[in-house]
Each structure stands twice: as structure tokens, then as C-alpha cells.
């Protein structure tokens, strides 16, 4: 694996990126807007800090992310909290807390059209907020290059605390940051609630209170009278909140969020074959403004990916929907329907990029492209016109974006 090398001058370029992002002058990228690809800090900045921690969000802001991502779950007593997994053993010290031992359980649920089972673990849905606040977050230890100095320092945040952090960094750093919450496994978190959209409406009410969403279709506020939201820190006159976007793998929930707020929706997907056909994209375009597949759909292709995951499909149905879109045509087909693109996840350069073509699978495209390193990977996706990219090690991503913009500038000068 080739590692992208950070030069001292590159670090200086990264620190200047927040001022540079909107300054594309006469350059035109192949995004829908014609502007630079926007960088989404995946779980904050997990390359250096425990993911979804206060420090992870601050570091993502300091490194110049355009959006900073939280993943949302719902506690037993109805509090929205931020954590990637629905279970807790992988990134917290829950197993070392004796008073929580009795809550270890097994769960099975459906997410993204696929059944998921996790055994002998602790689940956010089974703990109260008070119990959850006993836990401390740790950095993943199987990535030896990630700093482990801050393990055990930070607690799990509520969604409110995340939104307060983003308001604070907006004020204190003098630039807006986008919020892009992902609602994890709504069918799991709505079990046992007073009505089937409790989780979604709880998130909508909270986003509305903090100024990042307007309710466009009535929701049942009477079921949320216990939700006591904190007063807002006033924004300075010259400060402006960044944009907001919803994310969800559950397509029904994605449509619900789109129809009940003015916030655009990211349709996440990697397990539904119909999604990657022309008529499938037509269906998605009725509710989503942004499409977010696993990145290998743009390199090795849908058919190869589904085979690698043992996901089956009805060949006749896929043929009726127009067939699988080739990886080098997918970006154009999404843009043709007026939707933006936001593939995931672009890792720190120390980590394997995790493409099937690197494991010997032939890409299903004319070019047979397979990235050699992070720079090769990023330039390929920039050239295809990705509107957003979920990234880790935002410093590297910012440098590569700047280098690509400089390349465009040179090319466009030569063409005049």
C-alpha cells in the first residue's frame, strides 16, 4: 500500500483551505454546482480522535471540514445520542462497568434491506441516558497509527450537545459548518415507542429548535412534551449557520424526512440492487437530493460488489429497471436526475482503501481503473464530479483538494 506523503508546505495549504474553498474564481468542477467537492468529516475526525467525541468534532472544524457528521441513536428513555454503532462494546468501556452487566443482550433487526444480528453486547436502545453517560469512548485499537492518548477521556454526546458544538465552532472560528446527521436503524429505535415515527420526529424537533430545519408537514408534537431543549447561544450579527442535510439507509425514513422538513436528504445505500439501475435512480430522485453509495460502486461496479457480499437479485427485475449502471457512468446518471453525489468512506492514507479491484476483482468499466494510493483515488473521484465525500484525515483530503484545484486551473488556462 502506498502512503500519501504530507509535505510541510502541504500543511500550510491545508490551514488556508477554509478561506480557499469558495474561491474557485473561473474554475468549474464537474459537480452539480460547479464548485469544489465538499468534505464531510466522517464521525468528526476519527483519524486522530475517538470518533463522535467532542474533540473529534472540534478537530474536524479546525482542519477545515465543510460538514461534520454525527450518527444518531435513541436511548431507552428517549434521548437522542451520538454513536456509530447501535451496540456499545467496540468503542466504549461498557464491559468494565459492573452495574451495567445485566443489560448485555442479543438483538436482530433490519437495516438497509439486510438483517443484522449482534449478540452478547450492550445496546443504546436498552440504556437510559444516565447509564450511557457512565461510559467513556476509546479510539479503535486495531489501527495502530491512530493516537490512543485520549481513550477514556470523553463521554457519549447527546444530539443537542453535538449541535451546540457546531454552533460554537461556527461562532468561534468565524465560518459556517454543515450538519449532516445520520438516523441509524429507525426500525430498531422505534420499537416500543408511542408511534412508528417517534425517532424521526424527535430528530426533526431538535434540528428545528437549533435552527437547522423547518417543519413543512405536521408532526405529532404532543408525544414529545418531555423533550426539554436548551436555550440557544445567540449568533453574532455577522455569523451564519451552515447548511443541513439528513442521512439514512432506510429509504422509507429518507422519504419521510424529505416530506416533513425543508432539509435535503442523503439516500445512503449499499445493499439494495434496484437502487443502482436507471429506473431505480428515478425512484430515489422523488425524495432524495443526494445519493450516497459505498465508493466501490464507482470503481469495481454494482454487480461485482453484490456478488462479493453474497447479495442476490432477480435478473429479470434488474433488466426491466434498465440493468446495473456501469461504475464509470454512475456519476453522470445521478447528476442527470438532478441529484448530487456523496460516496463513502475515504480513509486516512495509512489504511487500506478496501476496493475489490485491489483483491483481484476486475473493474466493470472501460478504463479498468483501480487506485494505487490516496492521491490517485481522490483525483479519480474529483474528476467524476463528486459533490461531497466522506473523509478521514481531513488534512490530507484538504491538501489533495487544493492540489486538484491547482491542476484544474493549469488545465483551464491552457485551454483558453
Task: Give the helices and strands, then pairings.
Blueprint: H1 8-15, H2 17-20, E1 38-41, H3 54-62, E2 67-68, E3 71-74, E4 80-82, E5 105-111, E6 114-121, H4 129-132, H5 159-173, E7 178-179, E8 182-183, H6 186-189, H7 198-209, E9 246-248, H8 251-260, E10 265-269, H9 278-284, E11 290-293, H10 302-308, H11 315-320, H12 330-336, E12 340-341, H13 374-384, E13 388-391, H14 394-415
Parallel strand pairs: 1-2, 1-13, 2-7, 3-8, 9-10, 10-11, 11-12
Antiparallel strand pairs: 3-4, 5-6
Helix pairs in contact: 1-14, 3-5, 13-14
Q: What is the compact description of this entry?
A:
The protein is α/β, with parallel strands linked by helices. It is built from 14 helices and 13 strands. It comes from Coemansia thaxteri.
What does it look like?
The protein is of the alpha/beta class and 416 residues long. The chain has a domain at 8-69 and 264-415. It has helices at 8-15, 17-20, 54-62, 129-132, 159-173, 186-189, 198-209, 251-260, 278-284, 302-308, 315-320, 330-336, 374-384, 394-415, and strands spanning 38-41, 67-68, 71-74, 80-82, 105-111, 114-121, 178-179, 182-183, 246-248, 265-269, 290-293, 340-341, 388-391. The strands form four sheets. It has a four-stranded parallel β-sheet, covered by helices on one side. A four-stranded parallel β-sheet has the order 9-10-11-12, with helices on one face. Helix 9 (278-284) links the parallel strand 10 and strand 11 (290-293). 44% of the residues are buried. Residues 6-25 have low confidence and may be disordered.
Amino acid at each position: 500500500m502506498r502512503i500519501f506523503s504530507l509535505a510541510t508546505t502541504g500543511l500550510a495549504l491545508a490551514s488556508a483551505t477554509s478561506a480557499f474553498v469558495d474561491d474557485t474564481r473561473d474554475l468549474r468542477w464537474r459537480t452539480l454546482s460547479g464548485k469544489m467537492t465538499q468534505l464531510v468529516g466522517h464521525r468528526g475526525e476519527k483519524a486522530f480522535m475517538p470518533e463522535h467525541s467532542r474533540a473529534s468534532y472540534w478537530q474536524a472544524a479546525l482542519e477545515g471540514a465543510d460538514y461534520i457528521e454525527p450518527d444518531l441513536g435513541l436511548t431507552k428513555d428517549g434521548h437522542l445520542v451520538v454513536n456509530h454503532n447501535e451496540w456499545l462494546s467496540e468503542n466504549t468501556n461498557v464491559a468494565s462497568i459492573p452495574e451495567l452487566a445485566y443489560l448485555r443482550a442479543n438483538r436482530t433487526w433490519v437495516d438497509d434491506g439486510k438483517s443484522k444480528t449482534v449478540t452478547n453486547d450492550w445496546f443504546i436502545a436498552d440504556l437510559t441516558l444516565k447509564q450511557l453517560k457512565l461510559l467513556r469512548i476509546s479510539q479503535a485499537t486495531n489501527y495502530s497509527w491512530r493516537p490512543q492518548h485520549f481513550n477514556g477521556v470523553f463521554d457519549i454526546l447527546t444530539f443537542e450537545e453535538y449541535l451546540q458544538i457546531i454552533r460554537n465552532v461556527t461562532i468561534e472560528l468565524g465560518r459556517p459548518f454543515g450538519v449532516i446527521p445520520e438516523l441509524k436503524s429507525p426500525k430498531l429505535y422505534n420499537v416500543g415507542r408511542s408511534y412508528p415515527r417517534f425517532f424521526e420526529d424527535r430528530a426533526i424537533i431538535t434540528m428545528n429548535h437549533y435552527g437547522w430545519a423547518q417543519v413543512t408537514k405536521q408532526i405529532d408534537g404532543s408525544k414529545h412534551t418531555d423533550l426539554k431543549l436548551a436555550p440557544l447561544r445567540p449568533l453574532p450579527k455577522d455569523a451564519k449557520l451552515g447548511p443541513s442535510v439528513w442521512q439514512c439507509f432506510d429509504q422509507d425514513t429518507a422519504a419521510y424526512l424529505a416530506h416533513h422538513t425543508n432539509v435535503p436528504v442523503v439516500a445512503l445505500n449499499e445493499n439494495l440492487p434496484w437502487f443502482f439501475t436507471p429506473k431505480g435512480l428515478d425512484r430515489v430522485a422523488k425524495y432524495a437530493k443526494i445519493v450516497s453509495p459505498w465508493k466501490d460502486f464507482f470503481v469495481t461496479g454494482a454487480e461485482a460488489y453484490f456478488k462479493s457480499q453474497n447479495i442476490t437479485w432477480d435478473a429479470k427485475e434488474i433488466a426491466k429497471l434498465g440493468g446495473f449502471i456501469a461504475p464509470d457512468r454512475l456519476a453522470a446518471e445521478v447528476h442527470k436526475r438532478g441529484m448530487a453525489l456523496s460516496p463513502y468512506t475515504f480513509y486516512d492514507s495509512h489504511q487500506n482503501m478496501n476496493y475489490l479491484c485491489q483483491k483481484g476483482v476486475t473493474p466493470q468499466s472501460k478504463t479498468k481503473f483501480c487506485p494505487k494510493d490516496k492521491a490517485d483515488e481522490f483525483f479519480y473521484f474529483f474528476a467524476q464530479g463528486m459533490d461531497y465525500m466522506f473523509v478521514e484525515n481531513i488534512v490530507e483530503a484538504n491538501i489533495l483538494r487544493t492540489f486538484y484545484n491547482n491542476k484544474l486551473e493549469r488545465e483551464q488556462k491552457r485551454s483558453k
